Amino acid sequence: MLSDYTAATFTHDGATKSIFVRGQGPAVIVIHEIPGITPKVVRFADWVVEAGFRVYMPLLVGEAGREVSRAYVLKSISTVCIRREFSVLAAHRSSPVTDWLRALARHASAETGGGPVGAVGMCFSGNFALSMMLEPCLMAPVLSQPSMPFPLGAARKAAIHVSPFELQCVKDRCAKGDKVLGLRFKGDPMSPPEKFETLRRELGDAFEGIELDDSTANPDSPSPYPHSVLTEDLIDREGEPTRQAADRVIAFFHERLDAR
Questions:
Q1: How many angstroms separate the Cα of 89 from the Cα of each of 3, 80, 93, 151, 247?
Q2: Cα–Cα distance for residue pair 156/216, rounded to 1 Å
Q3: For 132-162, how does the pLDDT look when each residue is reduced to its tens digit (9 = 90+)?
Q4: Which phi and psi (to 5°) does residue 64 adopt?
Q5: In CATH, 6-257 is 3.40.462.10
Q6: Out of 49, 121, 122, 142, which could bridge 33 as a Cys pair, Cβ 3.0 to 4.6 Å?
Q7: Whole-angstrom Cα distance, residue 137 to residue 116?
């Protein structure tokens, strides 16, 4: 499933990670969810490529192309919880890995002629796109079921995993016309409504939040509850709300990245 992608590595500040690259056009960084770059994550990345973008897909945890299983999910969760580049309970601080992702955004921009870059984070990486807005080239941030900090307690449920400085940067950019797109299922306990309430309060009309009824999720998903809007819980059929949400993400990339 990754045979059409070029496998490479990217190094920043001593950290080297695998990336998978495919396509032509403005750059979009697709940041996978737990447990890793699964076939459904690749399917979404393929749609972005087919829409006219150049995808950069970093591997942060797990294995590239491996199917979802309960054991695989638990292993990836434990990895995320113990690695210092992820701060899973930090309410007002971003994960250190976002510095590497900002460097990747600069690299992707340079490779595509210095143009703007989009990014979509999913689940544990959902809010990473907010921190990436410290990089001026990051023009199209998408937060799909943002879950960090993991929602243990009322404060963490409402927190959006960025520092006060990063949040102010995002707010300043939104005040000048930048936009942020978010997606979640209404009943998702890992991405609770309080996070979107915070985003609406802080960003106002610059935040577009799409909240889907749980009944619209893929009934064959391996997840115990609707969660993965763009991957496992998406029904790939015209007219389905989850497919419309994926189409909205791609339209957002066109709005924010084309001819800029």
A1: 36, 11, 9, 8, 32
A2: 27
A3: 999 999 999 999 999 999 999 999 999 999 9
A4: -75, 120
A5: no
A6: 122
A7: 5
